């Protein structure tokens, strides 16, 4: 039950608080006063979208808050709409929540019918869902959806597999060619960089060997006439001069030391191993040339070729194994199709059983709403393909409002008033289990005369079972309310406001008189209704 509704800064509503009663609550007022905004606020609270322009001019945000009581447990839902971004935030019991959470609660909180609901009633898809609400085992619907979705997924995988096989099969010759060309060279990741570095190292080593040979040639010369031999002769000559020229003793010692250093250098140079087989550099150059040819042929860099090599292996392996995969998917698809057919057979049987009960209940409800004692409802079943080769029987409501007519669809013969009463009968049956708050938005459209009294009595009877919020322009319906609210539009200081307040007994009399046309005739009807 919806106990309390508060709306702030929504459209023309500044700050509005309504405390609803159990039973029947009526909202009345002139056309355009803003009754629909109140219901849009409830719908916004339970998941509908509102645009930022619905926030009252000059305000940062709009807020709708409601207190529901379900089986003695209170649930407070609040939703806010930002004027600048259009984003909304939703809170359940003061905790930030999601629309999915409210959607899961909605069925037990509010059921909103309207003139739009009448048009939905004409839809065969809606009529089929309506019948499903009366199924003895609703788990079959979930099992049907699960199997259907899984079957579609497997069929999708099978199609994707066939498409890929077809595409790769057309390229098989080219794939084999690329694979062979790569296999001949068999490149490795990073190989080109390693070979380039190795080539530079070998070239550096070759240059160093040439320098070593030149240094040793200078030290030894040809025929023993290198620096070593020359320093030996020079040292002997200088030492021969020392006896005659003592001042040369120090220079002779320097020459001896330098000769010793040259000897040490010669030993170290001889120990240097800078040998590099000429074939090493040639092999590296040959490998680099081979890789360059492969790159030109395949028009990719080496990393791309290595990646292509793996891709080719996978594609060729896929083509080789695709036959087994297709057989596996064919088998799975057939098993799912058989399981879905079995579930549908049970579902069809349950639907026909539910249709029998719904038909009888609807006929009873319609007779109570002023239809002929001869009114009949028929529920026909039409095949609807849900997967190639698999059809599901879906219900369509047919009726005969008058004797002597053949059953016809609702959209062919039902007037607005007849649809209104049909919707009222249907809602009364649909909500027997969860008993949410029922919101009737001008469901009495197209109804007049004595039928109004019948509809009013049915609404009143229904309100004894569960709470009803009724928007109406008919005094015959409003007079049945346990709590009556009037919606009105007021202008203050150049600003327009939508107001709504609970009416006292005297105010109710005045409002019913207005709704009845005013004057003596309106007052007379109001007295009669209230009596």
Automatic annotation (TrEMBL):
This protein's record includes keyword ATP-binding: yes
InterPro entries the UniProt entry points to: DNA_recomb/repair_RecN, P-loop_NTPase, RecF/RecN/SMC_N
Domain RecF/RecN/SMC N-terminal span(s) in chain numbering: 5-490
One example GO MF annotation: ATP binding
Keyword Amino-acid biosynthesis attached: no
An annotated GO cellular component: bacterial nucleoid
Coiled coil regions in record: 291-346
GO biological process: DNA recombination; DNA repair; SOS response
Alphabetized UniProt keyword annotations: ATP-binding, Coiled coil, DNA damage, DNA repair, Nucleotide-binding
Stated role: May be involved in recombinational repair of damaged DNA.
UniProt similarity note: Belongs to the RecN family.
Name of the protein described by the UniProt record: DNA repair protein RecN
């Amino acid at each position: 039950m919806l106990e309390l509704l508060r709306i702030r800064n929504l459209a023309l509503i500044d700050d509005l608080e309504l405390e609803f009663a159990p039973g029947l609550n009526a909202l009345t007022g002139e056309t355009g006063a803003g009754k629909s905004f109140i219901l849009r606020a409830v719908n916004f609270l339970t998941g509908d979208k509102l645009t930022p322009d619905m926030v009252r001019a000059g305000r940062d945000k709009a807020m709708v808050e409601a207190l529901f009581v379900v089986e003695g447990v209170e649930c407070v839902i609040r939703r806010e709409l930002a004027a600048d971004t259009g984003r909304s935030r939703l809170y359940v019991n003061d905790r930030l929540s999601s629309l999915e959470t409210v959607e899961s609660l909605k069925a037990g909180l509010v059921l909103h019918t309207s003139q739009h609901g009448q048009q939905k009633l004409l839809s065969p898809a809606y009529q089929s869902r309506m019948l499903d609400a009366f199924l003895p085992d609703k788990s079959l619907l979930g099992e049907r959806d699960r199997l259907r979705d899984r079957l579609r997924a497997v069929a999708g995988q099978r199609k994707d597999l066939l498409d890929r096989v077809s595409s790769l099969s057309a390229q098989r010759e080219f794939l084999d060619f690329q694979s062979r060309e790569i296999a001949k060279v068999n490149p490795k990741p990073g190989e080109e960089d390693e070979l380039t570095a190795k080539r530079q190292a070998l070239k550096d080593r070759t240059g160093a060997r040439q320098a070593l040979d030149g240094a040793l040639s200078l030290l030894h010369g040809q025929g023993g006439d290198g620096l070593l031999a020359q320093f030996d002769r020079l040292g002997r000559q200088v030492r021969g001069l020392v006896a005659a020229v003592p001042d040369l003793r120090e220079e002779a010692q320097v020459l001896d030391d330098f000769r010793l250093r040259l000897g040490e250098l010669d030993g170290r140079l001889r120990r240097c191993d800078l040998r590099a087989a000429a074939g090493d550099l040639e092999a590296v150059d040959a490998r680099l040339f081979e890789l360059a040819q492969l790159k030109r042929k395949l028009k990719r860099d080496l990393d791309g070729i290595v990646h292509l090599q793996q891709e080719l292996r996978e594609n060729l392996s896929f083509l080789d194994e695709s036959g087994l995969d297709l057989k596996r998917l064919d088998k799975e698809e057939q098993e799912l199709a058989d399981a879905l057919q079995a579930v549908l057979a049970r579902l069809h049987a349950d639907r026909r059983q539910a249709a029998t009960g719904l038909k009888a209940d609807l006929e009873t409800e319609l007779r109570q709403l002023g239809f002929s004692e001869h009114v009949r409802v028929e529920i026909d079943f039409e095949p609807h393909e849900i997967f190639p080769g698999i059809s599901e029987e879906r219900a369509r409501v047919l009726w005969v409002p008058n004797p002597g007519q053949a059953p016809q669809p609702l959209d062919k013969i039902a007037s607005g008033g007849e649809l209104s009463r049909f919707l009222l009968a249907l809602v009364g049956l649909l909500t027997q289990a969860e008993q949410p708050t029922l919101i009737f938005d001008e469901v009495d459209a197209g109804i007049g005369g004595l039928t109004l009294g019948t509809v009013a009595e049915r609404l009143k009877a229904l309100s004894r079972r569960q709470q009803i919020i009724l928007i109406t322009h008919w005094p015959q319906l409003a007079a049945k309310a346990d709590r009556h609210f009037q919606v009105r539009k007021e202008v203050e200081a150049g600003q327009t406001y939508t107001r709504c307040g609970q009416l006292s007994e005297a105010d109710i009399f005045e409002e019913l008189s207005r709704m009845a046309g005013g004057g003596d005739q309106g007052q007379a009807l109001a007295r009669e209704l209230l009596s």
